[in-house]
């Protein structure tokens, strides 16, 4: 084992299942990882002669090898295998040297060989005998020949110029055709195996009476060299043999010996008269040196022959282009593959020998890949830079292989290498923040906004889901305010917002992909709640308690523009929804008070008079500027008094002056009228009595002087209660009667 290559020797015809070695042990590989690393054996042979046990790494024979069938006449029979392992990708070369065993016997090309021998030949005449073929090599091939015993013939071995030996039949005693016309001999070929094997061929010698000279070649071995792409008809060599005989016995005809293979006889032609050997068809051979035997026969009645060897060297021309074979390909590859990652293993072969079979290989320079030579005729395609699937999702890699022939031949093969996605890109929002505006009092589940993030990754790595990051808003969990759709980022309200309680807040939405590990990004969303006119103005002053009317005391004779009170109100809404205006909705005396629409100040429009009612009531409406507007009212009772009374009077809720002729006042008036009528009748009665007395008096003047009459005559006055003298009769109104009526009655008695 050396440099990733291991060589085994195995005898041919080894039975199936026989152990060859342990590939894991020999290459230093953990046998337990063979299956996981997807090992496989690659060979150019049509049969799989060997097996590897995936558990132990034991290498055994899968198919018996016939060396002669596999390698024909090659001196060295080699089988080349490649062992490919993945994760990581590794390549080992295995060479099996098939050792020859003596499993073939020598075989003669003909089942029977005939020799015509003229009877007049002297002892020492030689005749070429057929050579046997043994498919075995070395000592297992033909080593010697023997001839059956005969008193006329014996066997001698001869050597050619190239060192090869061949048998010759030698006449040791003159023949007499009349005594024996035919001699039957047996030629035996033996190999050097242990035990040796042999092959026999009958040699029938016919004794002739004529033609005692055989043709002789000028050379025992002819050598020629031609190009492998030589066209049909190209002259290879011209052989020449001479026969000392005259006439037909001296005429020579040329042909290929029967020992020359049929394939070579089809590839070449020999002219029977001239001895010219020419190309016939395509030289479809892989051996650089071809060997043929040419036979020269005369035209005698009993023809004689001789043979010469023709060695033809096939000169290679660059007629084969490089062959690119993809031994292993890893596609797709992850985009985070580090430089130097092996992607493919290539086998590049050129059938031409020598320089014509040497190959250079390259790929375009603008790709993040490079080719590195591995074992002989193998290249590794590795990454040379960083990959980014989002920029380039795949590469068409054109591999160009050029041999060193003249002219060179170029072969191209294109690989499609797909880049697989890894989760190397987090989701990206289009902006850092989003502003959302929503009106208060929104319905539950109202759609607010939709955030969107993009992820250039593929599949699950690019599928984005959305969620709210945990936080609190106004002391409550964010989830009680909002929800977000996991799939499309739509944000919904889970409660109705109240501008007066919460005017704005912010939160974060997190976008996370489904890669492993997952990547995420967050965006801040600012929520601004816009106001609706949902709050009526609140009256802060004057205030009432227990449903009673707020009372303001005003001096009895207050001047014009006197500040009675100031209505103070507040609206929790915002902007124009909180702009307040003040209006008099109702007043017991519209000419007495006015209200400033913007400040809410209630002032007198004129100076108060003594004849003005003591109690007044106004209803103030406070209205905002919303759409639609909302309002609140407050009722203010106004008491005209110079000092604060101990008990405040009641104020009519209607806010209008009390009617003079209500039921109670009518009752009082009727009562007073009756009393007055009785009193008047009484006075009338007294007056009548007085008049009667005056008539009876002597002097009328003394009876009823004018001054006294004036003094004592009765009269009735209606005076204010503040001018009530002690002797006046005071009748105070009750119920809705708000004034005191005073009556003075006097009777002058004479």
Automatic annotation (TrEMBL):
GO cellular component, one term: plasma membrane
Location in or out of the cell: Cell membrane
Taxonomic superkingdom: Eukaryota
Gene3D superfamilies tied to this protein: Cadherins
UniProt keyword list: Calcium, Cell adhesion, Cell membrane, Glycoprotein, Membrane, Repeat, Signal, Transmembrane, Transmembrane helix
Membrane topology qualifier: Single-pass type I membrane protein
Role description: Potential calcium-dependent cell-adhesion protein. May be involved in the establishment and maintenance of specific neuronal connections in the brain.
Protein name per its UniProtKB record: Protocadherin alpha-C1
Native species: Balearica regulorum gibbericeps
């Amino acid at each position: 084992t050396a440099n990733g290559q291991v060589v085994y020797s195995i005898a041919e015809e080894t039975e199936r299942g026989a152990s060859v070695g342990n590939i894991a042990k020999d290459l230093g590989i953990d046998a337990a990882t063979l299956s996981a690393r997807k090992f496989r054996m690659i060979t150019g042979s049509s049969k799989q002669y060997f097996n590897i046990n995936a558990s132990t790494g034991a290498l055994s024979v899968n198919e018996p090898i016939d060396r002669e069938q596999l390698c024909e006449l090659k001196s060295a029979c080699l089988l080349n295998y490649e062992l490919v392992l993945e994760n990581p990708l590794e390549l080992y070369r295995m060479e099996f040297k098939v050792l020859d065993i003596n499993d073939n016997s020598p075989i003669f090309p003909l089942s029977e060989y005939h020799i015509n021998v003229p009877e007049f030949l002297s002892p020492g005449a030689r005749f070429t005998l057929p050579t046997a073929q043994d498919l075995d090599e070395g000592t297992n091939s033909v080593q010697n020949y023997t001839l059956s015993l005969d008193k006329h013939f014996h066997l001698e071995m001869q050597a050619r110029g190239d060192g090869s030996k061949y048998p010759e039949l030698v006449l040791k005693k003159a023949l007499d055709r009349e005594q024996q016309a035919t001699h039957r001999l047996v030629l035996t070929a033996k190999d050097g195996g242990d035990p040796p094997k042999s092959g026999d061929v009958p040699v029938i010698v016919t004794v002739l009476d004529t033609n005692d000279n055989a043709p002789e070649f000028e050379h025992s071995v002819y050598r020629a060299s031609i190009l492998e792409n030589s066209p049909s008809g190209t002259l290879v060599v011209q052989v020449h043999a001479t026969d000392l005989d005259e006439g037909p016995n001296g005429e020579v005809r040329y042909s290929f010996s029967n020992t020359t293979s049929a394939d070579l006889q089809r590839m070449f032609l020999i002219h029977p008269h001239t001895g010219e050997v020419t190309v016939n068809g395509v030289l479809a051979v892989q051996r650089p040196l071809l060997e043929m035997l040419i036979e020269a026969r005369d035209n005698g009645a009993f023809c004689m022959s001789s043979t010469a060897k023709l060695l033809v060297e096939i000169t290679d021309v660059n007629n084969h282009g490089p062959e690119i074979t993809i031994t292993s390909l890893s596609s797709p590859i992850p985009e985070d593959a580090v430089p130097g990652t092996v992607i493919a293993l290539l086998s590049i072969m050129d059938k031409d020998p020598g320089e014509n079979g040497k190959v250079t290989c390259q790929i375009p320079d603008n790709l993040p890949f490079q080719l590195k030579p591995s074992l002989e005729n193998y290249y590794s395609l590795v990454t040379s830079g960083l990959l980014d699937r989002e920029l380039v999702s795949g590469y068409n890699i054109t591999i160009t292989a050029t041999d060193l022939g003249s002219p060179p031949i170029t072969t191209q093969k294109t690989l499609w290498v797909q880049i697989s996605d890894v989760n190397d890109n987090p989701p990206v929002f289009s902006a850092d923040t989003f502003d959302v505006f929503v009106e208060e009092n929104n319905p539950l589940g109202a759609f607010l906004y939709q955030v969107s993030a993009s992820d250039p990754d593929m599949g699950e790595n690019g599928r984005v889901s959305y969620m709210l990051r945990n936080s609190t808003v106004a002391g409550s969990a964010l989830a009680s305010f909002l929800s977000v759709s996991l799939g499309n980022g739509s944000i919904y309200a889970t409660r109705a917002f109240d501008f007066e309680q919460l005017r704005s807040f912010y939160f974060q939405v997190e976008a996370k992909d489904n890669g492993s590990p997952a990547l995420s990004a967050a965006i801040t969303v600012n929520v601004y709640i816009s106001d609706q006119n949902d709050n009526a103005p609140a009256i802060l002053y004057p205030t009432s308690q227990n449903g009673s009317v707020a009372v303001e005391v005003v001096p009895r004779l207050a001047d014009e523009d006197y500040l009675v009170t100031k209505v103070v109100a507040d609206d929790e809404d915002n902007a124009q929804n909180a702009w307040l205006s003040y209006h008099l909705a109702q007043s017991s005396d519209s000419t007495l008070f006015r209200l400033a629409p913007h400040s809410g100040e209630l002032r007198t429009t004129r100076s108060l008079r003594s004849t003005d009612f003591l109690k007044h009531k106004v209803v103030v409406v406070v209205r905002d500027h919303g759409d639609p507007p909302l309002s609140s009212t407050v009722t203010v009772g106004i008491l005209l008094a110079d000092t604060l009374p101990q008990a405040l009077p009641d104020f009519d809720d209607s806010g209008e002056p009390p009617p003079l002729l209500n039921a109670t006042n009518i009752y009082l008036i009727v009562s007073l009228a009756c009393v007055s009528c009785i009193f008047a009748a009484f006075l009338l009665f007294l007056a009548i009595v007085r008049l009667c007395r005056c008539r009876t008096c002597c002097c009328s003047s003394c009876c009823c002087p004018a001054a006294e009459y004036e003094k004592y005559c009765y009269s009735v006055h209606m005076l204010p209660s503040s001018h009530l003298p002690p002797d006046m009769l005071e009748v105070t109104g009750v119920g809705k009667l708000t004034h005191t009526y005073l009556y003075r009655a006097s009777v002058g008695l004479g």
